[in-house]
Amino acid sequence: xxxxxxxxxxxxxxxxxxxxxxxxxxxxxxxxxxxxxxxxxxxxxxxxxxxxxxxxxxxxxxxxxxxxxxxxxxxxxxxxxxxxxxxxxxxxxxxxxxxxxxxxxxxxxxxxxxxxxxxxxxxxxxxxxxxxxxxxxxxxxxxxxxxxxxxxxxxxxxxxxxxxxxxxxxxxxxxxxxxxxxxxxxxxxxxxxxxxxxxxxxxxxxxxxxxxxxxxxxxxxxxxxxxxxxxxxxxxxxxxxxxxxxxxxxxxxxxxxxxxxxxxxxxxxxxxxxxxxxxxxxxxxxxxxxxxxx
Length: 294
Ligand code: HEM
Hints:
About 65% of the residues lie in helices and about 0% in strands. It is mostly helical.
């Protein structure tokens, strides 16, 4: 006890403060509790369905759970991206976490497919137009932190790029613009326009900041990355860019194309084409795939 007292005294003296004042404060402070610390009541107040369908709340909550997992993912990605030196052991640990979170999203996605009533979803979704998961900015943050813009452009987009493209040029041809930009008519869907209005400028700003400093750029600092690290990076690339998109696409097919009816999605994209990894060709660490020959 005397030891702790001495340490507390030393801590506040080092700050030029009187330790007694802080000790007196401690005497008055209320003990922390679970509900305040975790902000349970705030969290549970964030579900505001727009219809009377009970399953709409599941839809909202599962999207919120996903956004929290994306935040956890970004929390790890940012630490790797912001640290100057690439320390393999740290990368392997953090990528292990990123893969675990992404696996949880893949493994739980059947909450969306089998965990809602088909008939109800297909009615309440009409009230959600033009909102779409497409407008998840955290999904785009993960992409921008992981890789350069050139790796987020598919073969068709690359053909359209001008010679020596600027960041703004790259941005115009990112694969995800195709969800709402009709290149023949020049028209953009309201879903895309809303998203661009809110996030285009900050996303382009972020792309400038991250230019040459993404995870893909950083791991290349290692002259001979270990097999363990390469494996973890490839695993993440596969989980985020192939496996999650596939469970997501299969869920869209379940609701929107069960009987070959190809319904319009809330975001208005040509979703069957757009959501397929073969169309998107999103790859975070392309040099590793070339090496692996897969
Ligand atoms: C019943 C469940 C779901 C269906 C039917 C569905 C359907 C779709 C469709 C059709 C699109 C293409 C854009 C559009 O036209 O709207 C899309 C995009 C997207 N959705 Fe979902 N979605 C579902 C659940 C979710 C959930 C739970 C999330 C989690 C946040 C999510 C995140 C996304 C993302 C990030 C995109 C953009 C994907 C990309 O650009 O590669 N979706 N969704």
